[in-house]
Write a structure and sequence with these properties.
Strand order of the largest sheet: 1-2
Oligomer: single chain
Number of domains: 2
Radius of gyration: 16 Å
Number of helices: 4
Number of strands: 2
Shape: globular
Low-confidence stretches: 94-100
């Protein structure tokens, strides 16, 4: 499960709950730094910001979503330049989905 670092504190209780519910394996969590729309306000679906589902419904490919997220996070200066390189570094590159 991939989610923001603001949810890190709730991870332990969620793992304990999954054990109480007899899950064979608790979920695996990855917490990413928050994406901010200003220095004081995070991007948030609950505030009406666009989520991955909306981008995919608008026919954005997976590579475009990853590239856009990397740009918004400040990792790369533009969407297109990051798509293939990010996916390659993760071992997810598919030439039919992302091009340099």
């Amino acid at each position: 499960m991939i989610r923001g670092v603001d949810l890190l504190e709730s991870t332990g209780p969620q793992i304990a709950l999954s054990r109480l519910l007899s899950r064979a394996e608790p979920p695996t969590f990855f917490h990413h730094p928050l994406l901010m729309k200003s220095s004081a306000q995070k991007l948030s679906k609950s505030d009406g910001d666009t989520g991955v589902r909306e981008l995919r419904a608008a026919r954005w490919g997976a590579a475009a979503v990853v590239g856009h997220a990397a740009r918004v996070a400040g990792v790369y200066p533009e969407d297109r330049a990051v798509i293939a390189s990010v996916l390659r570094s993760l071992g997810w590159f598919d030439a039919s989905v992302a091009r340099d």
